[in-house]
Amino acid sequence: MKYRELIRETNEEMKERLELVMERVKEISINPETKAPYDAYYRQVAAYLTLLYSVYEKACSGELSHISERDGKACNEALFAEIQKDNYKTSFANPAYAVRILGEEYGQILSAVYASVRNTAAYVFEGNCQYLCIYAELFVELHTYFENPDELTREEIRQAVYSFEHDYSEVFNEDSVKRLVDPDYDYYTDIVMNSDLTDLSYLYRYGRYISANETGIAAFLNTLPQEDIQAMADTYTEGYRIGFEVTRKDLSIKETVEIRYPVGFERMVRCAVDNFAKLHLRPVMKPFSTEANKQYVYDHREDQALYLDKALVERGLEVYRTVFEKVKKKAALYAGPAVIEVFGEEPFSPETKLEAPHFSESQQQLQVYRQSGYSQIINQYIKGEERSFTIISYPVPEIGDQFPEIFAETVKINTLDYMLYRNMQQKIIDVLDRADHVHIVGAEGNKTDLVVTTYPLTDPGTQTSFENCVADVNIPVGEVFTSPVLKGTTGRLHVSQVYLNGLSYENLQIDFKDGMIEHYTCTNFADEKENQKYIRDNILHHHDTLPMGEFAIGTNTVAYVMARKYHIADKLPILIAEKTGPHFAVGDTCYTYCEDTAVYNPDGKEIVARDNEISLLRKEDPSKAYFNCHTDITIPYDELDKITAIGKDGIKTDIISGGRFVVPGTETLNVPLDHE
Question: What is the pTM of this model?
Answer without folding.
Answer: 0.90
